[in-house]
Design brief:
Layout lengths: L1 E6 L28 H7 L11 E5 L3 H10 L6 E5 L5 H13 L6 E6 L3 E2 L2 H16 L3 E6 L10 E7 L7 E7 L4 H10 L2 E11 H11 L1 H12 L2 E3 L2 E3 L2 H5 L6 H6 L5 E6 L3 E2 L4 H7 L8 E3 L2 E4 L5 E4 L4 E4 L4 E5 L4 E5 L6 H10 L10 E4 L2 E8 L3 E8 L7 E3 L3 E9 L2 E5 L2 E5 L4 E4 L5 E4 L6 E9 L8 E4 L8
Parallel strand pairs: 1-2, 1-4, 2-3, 3-11, 6-12, 14-16, 15-17, 16-18
Antiparallel strand pairs: 4-9, 5-13, 6-9, 7-8, 7-9, 8-12, 10-11, 18-19, 20-21, 21-22, 22-29, 23-30, 24-27, 24-29, 25-26, 25-28
Helix pairs in contact: 3-6, 3-7, 6-7
């Protein structure tokens, strides 16, 4: 049996301002109608002997991930919540411990949640080859056949063929991202492949090698599992235990040292969408080699990527640029320099700019809310509550709220009262009064909320009851 492990952590800062810490690229629809996470799972559906997946994600993204799985009717084996990022080795170790806890030794198929793979048939063939080697106790990685001297990827050098089929090779060595001259040499040699970050190995094999090379990671993850707790559909790794683990990639921790490594070449239209330039390269282009998303008008524009989320973006006489508009930020960069966005985002974080962390639209397990207007003593939000969902029973010490139903029907708890509000009806919730809203209908409930008070922060919430198990935001 193959047990997929989907690595869905990370913040995707190189795709800012669309990808942000609270809404990263793996949760976004970047190449079609499904998100990157959903596409990663959907491309596994036709494989043989596939078990329910283990999803590893940041605890801040747990309800978003669960909802995206529900939308494509995928039931997870487990959703493991990382209390903080510790790179891929601890994430894979925790997933392996979760799998082995069920008293079996499956082959793990480890996949990042933010890749594009266009040719599913070749992808599936490579997995079948990988399964054969993984069952023998070998540690398999997939090397992408390069089509250009790319300097943005690490490389893998192949060794001698494994067996007579020429479908797998001894894993010789890993190399860091090269300069342009070295990348050209790699491409010409035919012995170097892009490091995809995808792996296959039996649980017993990877845990054995982790114990051998980085026993401190295994010890920390075991403690995080032992002290972890089941929370609704999620498993929360213990924060102290997981934080004690060194932060290390599976490449550095194991794959560069193991004598059991095997590399399988993969040529299947792969891209990791690591930057806006990657989206330009993989996107559908117009007659002037422009990729356009949203409400965009162009005149004399060439070789550019233009994205509009909320308003008209007009461009005249530009070339080789990336222009990305969201409701609260606009990025303009040359395609050559677009990888340097990470430095800009780091500076935004250091300055405490909210644009580095979240969008105006914030997702919650019950739906979402979006800030429409705000000032020192008031804030206006648009709230959407999913059918059958309800907010926590709560009160505020510093603000009052006025709700107006725009569409749908709401059941409102206000102190000891229960009210039924229809479209164009409203209710006032005074400061300090316990309240809750619920959508009993079959269509989304849309409301406009006007907050007024001395403090309007989201941490001014005292919860008394919550169906989602949240003690705080």
């Amino acid at each position: 049996m193959i047990q997929p492990v989907i690595l869905a952590g990370g913040s995707g800062t190189r795709l800012w301002p669309l990808s942000r810490e609270l809404y990263p690229k793996q949760m976004l629809c970047l190449t079609g109608e499904q998100t990157m996470l959903q596409n990663t799972l959907l491309r596994l559906k036709d494989l043989n002997s596939i078990q329910d997946p283990i999803i590893v994600c940041n605890q801040e993204h747990r309800f978003m991930a669960a909802e995206q799985l529900r939308q494509i009717e995928v039931k997870p084996f487990s959703i493991l919540l990382e209390p903080l990022g510790r790179n891929t080795a601890p994430a894979i170790c925790a997933a392996a411990l979760m799998a082995v806890s069920q008293q079996h030794d499956p082959v793990l198929l480890v996949l990042p949640a933010d890749h594009v793979i266009e040719n599913l048939a070749d992808f599936h063939k490579a997995i079948e080859v990988g399964k054969t080697h993984a069952r023998k106790g070998e540690l398999v990685t997939f090397g992408i056949v390069p089509d250009s001297p790319e300097t943005g990827y690490g490389y893998i050098k192949k060794g001698d063929p494994v067996g007579d089929g020429g479908q797998a090779f001894v894993l010789d060595s890993f190399f860091e991202k090269p300069d342009s001259e070295t990348a050209v040499k790699y491409l010409k040699s035919g012995d170097f492949f892009w490091n995809s970050g995808m792996f296959m190995f039996k649980v017993s094999a990877i845990l054995g090698e982790l114990e051998r090379f980085v026993p401190e990671i295994v010890a920390s993850c075991r403690l995080a599992m032992e002290k972890g707790v089941q929370d609704l559909d999620f498993f929360r790794l213990d924060q102290d235990g997981f934080a004690a683990s060194p932060s290390n990639s599976i490449d550095y921790a194991v794959m560069e040292h193991t004598q059991r490594g095997v590399m399988i070449p993969l040529e299947a239209g792969w891209n990791d969408l690591g930057s806006w330039n990657s989206l330009w390269k993989t996107g559908k282009k117009d007659e002037n080699a422009n990729v356009i998303k949203g409400d965009v008008m162009l005149s004399d524009v060439k070789n550019s990527y233009l994205f509009s989320e909320s308003r008209l973006v007009a461009a005249v006489g530009i070339e080789d640029l990336v222009v990305v508009e969201t409701k609260d930020a606009v990025l303009v960069a040359t395609r050559e320099k677009v990888k340097e966005i990470k430095t800009l985002v780091k500076e935004l974080r250091e300055k405490g700019r909210i644009e580095a962390f979240g969008h105006r639209k914030i997702y919650r397990p019950w739906g979402s809310y979006e800030s429409v207007d705000d000032s020192q003593r008031f804030q206006v939000k648009r709230i959407t509550v999913k059918p059958g969902a309800k907010l926590s029973l709560q009160k505020h010490y510093h603000r009052a709220e006025h709700w107006t139903v725009v569409s749908g029907t709401a059941i409102i708890t206000k102190g000891d009262e229960e009210l039924l509000l229809k479209e164009d009806e409203s209710v006032y919730i005074p400061l300090g009064v316990m309240h809750r809203m619920e959508n009993p209908g079959r269509i989304p409930l849309e409301l406009i909320e006007v907050q007024s008070g001395t403090y309007l922060g989201e941490d001014d919430i005292v919860r008394f009851e919550d169906v989602y198990g949240r003690l705080k935001l």
